[in-house]
Amino acid sequence: MSRPARTARARPRGRWRRPAAVLLSYLAVTACAAVFLAPILFMAIGSLKPDARVLAEAGGWHAFWPGAGAGLGNYGDVFRRVPFMHYLLNSLWINGLIVVLGLPVNAFAGYALARLRWRGRELALAAVLAILVIPFEAIAVPLFYELTALGMRDSYTVQVIPFIANPLSIYLFYSFFLGLPRELEEAARIDGAGVLRTFLTIVVPNAKAAFASVTIVSFLFYWGMYLWPLLVTGGPGVRPLPLGIATFYTLPPLQWGDILAFGMMMVAPVLVVFVIFQRWFVRGVAATGLKG
Amino acid sequence: MGRTHTGAASMRESRMAWLFCTPAALGLLIFIVAPFVLALAMSFTGLRLGSPLPLEWVGLRQYARILSDPAFLHALVNNLVFALVVVPVQSALALGMALLLNRRLRAMVVFRTLFFMPVVFPLSLVAVVWVLIYAPGPNGMLNAALSALTFGAWQARDFLHDANLALPAIMLTSIWQGAGFQMVVLLAGLQAIPGELYEAARVDGAGPWQRFWHVTLPQLRNPLVFVVIVTSILSFRVFDQVRIMTHGGPHDASTTVIYEAVQAAFDQAQVARGAAMSVVFFLVVVLVTFVQRRLLRQEREVS
Amino acid sequence: MAGTERTGSPRRIGVTFAVFALLGIVAGCSGRAEPAGVVTVWAHAGRAVERHTLERQVAAYNARRGPDRVRLTFIPEGAYNGQVQAAALAGDLPDVLEFDGPYLYTYVWQGRLRPLDKLLPAALRADLLPSIIAQGTYRGHLYSVGSFDSGLGLWGDRRALERAGVRIPKGPGDAWTEAQFDKVLAALAAHDPDGEVLDLKLNYPNEWFTYAFSPLIESAGGDLIDRQTYRSAEGVLNGPAALRAMREIQGWFRAGYVDPNLDDAAFVQRRVALAWGGHWNYPRYHKALGKDLVLLPLPRFGPRLVTGEGSWSWGITRRCQKPGAAARFLKFLLRPDQVLATSEANGGVPATRAAIARSPLYGPHGPLRLFAEQLREGYAVARPRTPAYPAISAAFAQAFRAVRNGAAPKRALDRAVRTIDRDIRDNHGYPDVAVTGRR
After folding, report:
1. CA-based Rg of chain B, rounded to a whole angstrom?
2. What value of ipTM does the predicted structure carry?
3. Mutate which of A17, A132, A222 to test chain B, going by most B C-beta atoms within 10 A?
4. By the CB < 8 Å criterion, does A77 face chain C?
5. Between the CA atoms of C250, C254, C256 and C260, what dihedral angle is there, to the nearest 10 degrees?
6. Helix (H), strand (E) at residue C156
7. Closest Cβ–Cβ partner in B53, B55, B136 for C427
8. Among A42, A200, B198, C426, which residue is least crowded by beta carbons within 10 Å?
9. Which residues pair with C276 in a beta bridge?
């Protein structure tokens, strides 16, 4: 690595060290990534292998190499065995609704908790955290009784409505709104804008990072949901993806190639959501007009 | 920063706040709080799934039973140990990764996605793959890797069936799976730190470590507190890995409260017993969380 | 929605569920109003060949242009029990339903199923294997029939067995005793590079352990529960006979004979010489070992061999408005040609004697005739016919796991007995609250 030349804009030490620091961080990141991603690579490569070889080659370098006979056969299998596209569309629809409907509902609540003064605010915040503690498994059965009594079963509605208000999203919004610099809001309020107007015209456009994060997090939270659809769906009509994978869990030997292919395909939409939205929140933050 | 609101304005603010909260409050109350209250009521009965027998009130019997059940008590201890280890380790790891990736270079976007990938896979699939990684014998992936790293000094272990290694094995899987999730949040927080603060610090002659301590960490306080609190709450809820990888064994070495509760409610159809476990779980975790919040004291912006 | 619930006096929960169910049905947004003449059927989604066969059977039935048509829905096998129970709670069950063997009794006890005694002709019932009738009968009435039964045995690699100089049993009467089996394992281990010679299918899901290993307890003289009263497992599951059996099994683990079978390929890759298994393994094992494949009876831990039985079977729900039509479909499935088709698809033992006689696998010279023999001659013992079965099975599986991990068998079995007994006590001994059967 040659020494960088002193330019006219030469700055003190920090700049000069930069190329070495960059190289080091690339190395660190790559090393981390390699170890971190080994299991995923194993899954990805395994999804290309014929069933028998997936497990046979699990313990060694061959786990990471497709080798002979590899191809997209398992992916074709998945489409033949289950109505994958149908399940995928179901999952996308259900998850999409949960996220899209959840954004306004949870953002409003998060803002009220973070910025507005009202009696019971402390209590409400404590309640949100307490509700976050409640695991879904604890309320699955009572919720099932509750909704069955209301006649809701085996539909998109019953898989969406219970999850729109989400304590994790509320808490995420609350945390982000807390950290936003107050100057813009103060300016708007002095100019006479009401709370709602301030929120919609000032806060929301500047909180793209928050919306993007919540989208990613809540999409993820519910994408793999299994217990609830198990309880409330019957036939394949509104069945989502995670239940579809249960088809493959018959008596062993399990067809690992197919299962991994299913898993990889199930993961693709979430990755897409992540890739799209992570750019948003980077751009959104960069676009924040506020400096210091 | 004195009060900027008159009486009428603050009443309006109050009303708007209530309005803002109503949809969420409705949702939370109907779909989470109400069922939990129902579960609480169930925990005082002998309710079993689908039983044709009449419902009977048993008072505190379920609680007495679970609190004298060695498996449940072991599960409580396991949960606490799990949280105590996983939260700091996973958060530190996530912070480290976020710092590494916080540069305006093209490749970092790719790496960001890569580090996030473990989070994206369904937990059941992840658990199954890790069962293979933990396979006993010298051919298991982890055993082989450790052996290679220690130049043969490592003795092959059966991680998932060893009473001392089962819980750590699950911890490792959880950390691996969850770190990316926290990294996303911390990265957003890092990105939101105005560059000027770093410039100012640099001009003042602060080195990288000092910049970290005096600029990064304080600015990152809210997302960091969020990450710690959420990770600890979610880490108490560990279930899928236990179910798939160890079934709570060996000898309850890796069982957790949620695993015991689901087993009771769904495998043994003892809904009331599962409900009692969930209530105890709730009380313990709420207590822990509030102690945590006291200690961490998240910044409150509303004067 | 007339009086299917009229029998028996209303009890609090019963009435509540009826109200929920009614609300659910009336207000339900799933549009389940069936046109007259449609019989709804749920089946578990097994392997492709099994599913295709069932689909073909349904198509054939519908093509006969009888008065009713069958509509088939597959439910993922991994989620089957959970979905059925949830549907039962919501009052959303189909007309005809499949059950995995002994989980039937819970549904009968909950009042979900109709008795089949009057719906199936006596001649048909006489032709069924005694094990099928045994499995489907609860408190004196028949509630389910299967079109196939299972076979449980020991698969062997002839080459490895001969190399070790081991005697190969010829039939159920010739099974290895406990002591002989020990010697067999030792001899096989001496010729095996890693000493692991036995595959116990440790990678299988929970229910396998009860199905596969309770026969050993039973042949030793113990049992999962006292079958006179079905009230307690004390002294039976943790008595000296059962303890002996579990200690023996633990000995196999201790001696290092057992392959963990993570990849489910220990036997087909010839890493082990013996594999605990059943009829469903035959296609794969036959392909891998060809002429070297032998089917052996399990070892016997007492004077007589005991093996397992029971598999998926069909029942008609109380919700069904046209039991006659449903029964017609079941009768179709039990015709010899259909039974044979099913058996060919899943490798199971055909349920009727007529079909067995014609079966290439199970007939007098078939390679799997041992399974048929075991079932016919009464070597097979049904799993306990009690609604407590899920609790029993879960408790036993947990005990087995503990023993596998080195726990003291007495402690493990005592804990299982406590769990089972408490379950039965909590349910007041599973009285006949909803099982009325029109007496």
Report:
1. 24
2. 0.81
3. A132
4. no
5. 50
6. strand C152-157
7. B53
8. A200
9. C154
Question: Concatenated DSSP letters for chain B?
Answer: ------HHHHHHHHHHHHHHHHHHHHHHIIIIIHHHHHHHHHTTBT--TT--SPP-B-TTHHHHHHHT-HHHHHHHHHHHHHHHHHHHHHHHHHHHHHHHH-S--HHHHHHHHHHHHHHHS-HHHHHHHHHHHT-SSTTSHHHHHHHHHTTT-PPP--GGG-TTTHHHHHHHHHHHHHHHHHHHHHHHHHHTS-HHHHHHHHHTT--HHHHIIIIIHHHTHHHHHHHHHHHHHHHHT--HHIIIIITT-STTTT--HHHHHHIIIIIS--HHHHHHHHHHHHHHHHHHHHHHHHHH-------
Q: What tokens were used for C150?
A: 């299972």
DSSP assigned state of A56? H
Distance from B8 to chain C by nearest Cα, in Å?
47
Asked whether the beta carbons of residue C426 and residue B269 sit closer than 8 angstroms, the reply is no
Residues of B in contact with A113 (CB under 8 A): 21
* Contact criterion met (CB < 8 Å) for C391 and B268: yes
Alpha helix stretches (DSSP H) within A116-236: 121-133, 136-149, 156-160, 167-179, 183-190, 195-198, 204-206, 208-223, 227-232
Q: Which of C89, C401, C405 sits opposite B50 (nearest CB)?
A: C89
Per-residue pLDDT tens over the stretch C325-370: 999 999 999 999 999 999 988 889 999 988 998 899 898 888 999 9
In this predicted structure, what is the pLDDT of residue B111? 79
**How close B14 comes to chain C (CA, Å)?**
39
User: For all residues of chain A together, what is the average pLDDT?
Assistant: 81
Pull the structure tokens for residue C414. Answer: 């005592």
Contact call for residues C267 and C155 (beta carbons, < 8 A): yes
Contacts of C82 (CB under 8 A, 6+ apart): A230, A231, B266
Angstrom distance (rounded) from CA A220 to CA B84:
25
Query: Position A265: which residue type?
Result: M
Compute the distance between CA of residue B112 and CA of residue A278 in angstroms, rounded to an integer: 9
Per this entry, what is the length of chain B? 303
Query: Closest chain B residue to C430 measured between Cα atoms?
Result: B53
Residues of chain B short of pLDDT 70, as ranges, are 1-6, 104-105, 297-303
